[in-house]
Design a protein that fits this description.
The chain has three helices and two strands. The protein is α+β, with helices and mostly antiparallel strands and 66 residues long.
Length: 66
């Protein structure tokens, strides 16, 4: 596979980034298999925001950029 993004994802190794486990190519479609994450980004951020004293700010922090 010659996709730069896939190569970059495979090289990433950081405790705050979900690890790419496998890439499957079938009929010109790519399927990405990532490690299991207990929860989603909003849940993790909301939990941390509460512990940091930023209750109610998690949604604002995760608002998508235009």
């Amino acid at each position: 596979m010659a996709l730069r993004e896939v190569k970059s994802l495979r090289k990433l190794n950081h405790p705050c980034i979900v690890k790419l486990k496998e890439v499957i190519r079938e009929n010109d479609e790519l399927f990405f298999v990532f490690e299991f994450m207990d929860g989603n980004l909003y849940q993790v951020s909301a939990c941390r925001a509460i512990s940091w004293g930023l209750r109610g700010k998690a949604r604002t922090l995760l608002y998508p950029l235009p």
